[in-house]
Amino acid sequence: MRTRILFICTENAVQSPAAEAFLRAVGGDLRFEASSAGVAPSARFDPQVVASLQAHGIAPPPGVPKGLDAVAGKAFDHVVTLSDDVKDRVLSLRARERMHWTFDLDAGGDRVPEGGGRLAATNRAVRHRRRQGARSIQVTRPTEPMDDRDLYAGLIRLHILHHAAHEPIFGLGIIEELARHGYKLSAGTLYPILHGLERKGYLRSRETRVGKRGRRLYTATAKGKRALEHGKVKVRELFGELFEDD
What we know:
- The chain is of the alpha/beta class.
- The protein has helices spanning 15-26, 47-55, 118-136, 148-151, 153-166, 171-180, 187-199, 222-242; strands spanning 3-9, 32-38, 75-81, 94-100, 203-210, 213-220.
- The chain has a four-stranded parallel beta sheet, covered by helices on one side.
- Helix 1 (15-26) crosses helix 3 and helix 2 packs across helix 3 (118-136).
């Protein structure tokens, strides 16, 4: 039985649908059932939030924002409030555990620009929820035998560093490039890899715009380029051993 998680903010237009969409993207092969609602639902999801999610390769929630009446009477494992003004207004909902997630929209030195800054803020919120959610919700992946993907994890990272060392890369672009080499990665698999490489100092990223959409570009740092050169040496050594008898 899947773990049922409900995200709630004021209008179900920004934070909660972004959190729902992200959990659906990364938890599709786990035991999650994600949903969201608002105490005063808007008529539609914020268009900039939808664009932000799509730029990250994440499908926005279906339909329109929902109110609490749409989830009343349902039982959830976790109810997560994302706005300070709603955390005490949802106590009637049935939940095994209640959590309140807060985040600083200016965290990480990436300020929200004056006016129209909700796109950048949502990008940061999605990335922050990835990190905080990993700590806040215990996720148990069904036990599976090791498959080929486990063997290729290091090669995938070297591929990413190789391309990022030559030119800026972005999520969907590198997914397509990796697919050309036989690596079938979803956005929910790729973005944790990119963020992990960035946290370790191998990549740096910046937000840019392509038409009306936001896009995060990644480039290799000096540390990343050094790691790539060391990786090439190891790959050459391995290649020689693997094929020395052929």
